[in-house]
Amino acid sequence: MKFKITFLFLLLLQVQLFAQEQPGKTKLVVGVVVDQMRYDYLTKFENHYSEDGFKRLQREGFEMKNFHFDYVPTYTGPGHASVYTGTSPMNHGIVANNWYDKVIKESVYCVSDSEVSGLGVDSDNRDGKMSPHRMLTTSFADQNRLHTQFRGKTIGVSIKDRGAILPAGHTANAAYWFVGGDQGHFISSDFYMDELPNWVTKFNASDVAKSYLKVWDTYQDISTYTESGSDLNTYENGFRGKKEAAFPYDLKSLARENGTFSILRPTPYGNDLLLDFAKEAIVGEELGQDEFTDVFTLSFSSTDYVGHNFGVNSKEVQDTYVRLDRNIADLMAFLDRQVGKGNYTLFLTADHGAVHVPQFLKDNQIPAGYFEVDDMREALEAHLSSNFGLENVIESIYNHQIFLDYSKFDTYAEFVAAQNEVKHFLLQYKNIDKAYTRETLENGDFTGTPAELILRGFHQKRSGDIAYVLENAYISYSRKGSTHGSGNNYDTQAPLLMYGNGIKSGKTYNRYHIPDIAPTMSALLGIELPNGATGTVISEVLE
To answer: Per UniProt, where does substrate bind (predicted)?
Structure first.
């Protein structure tokens, strides 16, 4: 009898201890997007990373080593929308950062909204006239709001407006973004609220941004930065007022010629400033402090500005990521204290990658170059005019897509014939690799082909009539710095690190895609999938 009682006591004690070890439902989901972060930055600069930033996520969390975007174009707007909606542009409608609107016949911006007014700026200031109204599907943050009867909060922050607005979704309590110039503070719009909260007003009044107008030198000895190219080279833009794009940069003395506080964007201090604001947001909004799961979206934009300005192989990019690693460590230590280790779930990914500066590749015997859209358009229009009598039939060219003027065609057959002739011309034009017509994309089966990426980025109402693909490492961009947007691996492969409540530790080389993040988070939270989600749950990451 004594043995049975002892056995039952030990069994109950074991069950109790096991129950205590099991974390409850996550209190806070933190989605981190690093703008323009290539996957290889995790490995390329790893010797310079601390144990508490990226390496902590890898060591204690789950890493996807073969993670890709499954559509083009790979731009910031579509990237952020795809991460949080669980689908591609063909469904969520954010087909680019800017696109040509065939109805109003002008360019539109992915988050511009003339029906709202800014908060923190003059009401008619375009910087504040922003909302997610052009995004056509819900995000997992929206579904969490619905699931909790709007008791779970959503807050989005970024340097870029689209980096804050699209992830936060349609039902967010707030999205905040940075306005530079002479202001140097965070703003929002009345889409979300009537006035800025006190904690935002207090932060803006503290002049934190001014403290970052200082010298930018390398975080570690520049001689140890052997994973990037020489500091002084011909592939970088730099800043106005400084002859050479080389360290150090005195931002205070350069500020006036570079948009005052806007100079912080293409420096790691933009990330520092954003993290300062993010921590204030988590405290000010009391995120992760009750039984209803909150969602906090954080997009580091300065990495993209630095990449565009200096290029993939620059010392400036390397230093930015060495410093970002410390930002991640700082963020996680803060979350451990504020929310509690085991009480939050965090994922880190990117919105796209980037290509090396094409001139750098050319100088090293790798095929690459530059494509002049205006020259192609001029040649195409001359061809259509002289051979087919079609005048002014090209209405616009945007995002490697050609928009035809529908008023020029009397029948659908004429419209299709024009598409095919444009395609035929493009396939003979230098440095164009592939071309697809609207007719083909709407009616063909492209499963398992390169055109599948174009199809997933193709929205029937918002996309053009002929899409073309440039040869590898060809871009339409300036001769210095670099960009992104293609369906090639340098633009599509991204990191995905997941950590915290409900997440296993480990890694996988299985191929997954950006739209898989939102369904996975929905499964973790036990909520309905976003209404347009096409991705799948990454089951091997979930406990």
So the answer is: 97, 160-162
